[in-house]
From TrEMBL:
<dbReference type="InterPro" id="IPR016579">
    <property type="entry name" value="Synaptogyrin"/>
</dbReference>
<dbReference type="GO" id="GO:0030672">
    <property type="term" value="C:synaptic vesicle membrane"/>
</dbReference>
<comment type="similarity">
    <text>Belongs to the synaptogyrin family.</text>
</comment>
<keyword id="KW-0812">Transmembrane</keyword>
<feature type="transmembrane region" description="Helical">
    <location>
        <begin position="36"/>
        <end position="58"/>
    </location>
</feature>
<feature type="domain" description="MARVEL">
    <location>
        <begin position="1"/>
        <end position="76"/>
    </location>
</feature>
<keyword id="KW-0472">Membrane</keyword>
<protein>
    <recommendedName>
        <fullName>MARVEL domain-containing protein</fullName>
    </recommendedName>
</protein>
<keyword id="KW-1133">Transmembrane helix</keyword>
<dbReference type="InterPro" id="IPR008253">
    <property type="entry name" value="Marvel"/>
</dbReference>
<dbReference type="GO" id="GO:0031594">
    <property type="term" value="C:neuromuscular junction"/>
</dbReference>
Length: 76
């Protein structure tokens, strides 16, 4: 949920327009800062979807080794 909030806030209000009509990033006028925030938000959302899919499929995992790896990934 927080990844969607971060992504939405930066992509919606993270850019301002100067007098010449050119957009710049709100964070120190550095587009890399906005791109980093959006990228982290997208990666966190994809990781969240992956963990939700893993929780859904956990009971169907037949290998104990696979379950162990998933639990360690979830804890780490």
């Amino acid at each position: 949920l927080f990844s969607i909030i971060v992504f939405g806030c930066i992509s919606n209000k993270g850019y301002l327009t100067d007098e010449s009509g050119k957009e710049y990033c709100l964070y120190n006028k550095d587009t890399n800062a906005c791109n980093y925030g959006v990228g982290i938000g997208v990666l966190a959302f994809l990781a969240c979807i992956g963990f939700l899919a893993g929780e859904y499929l956990f009971e169907q995992m037949s290998s104990v080794k696979t379950r162990k790896h998933y639990v360690l990934l979830d804890l780490g």
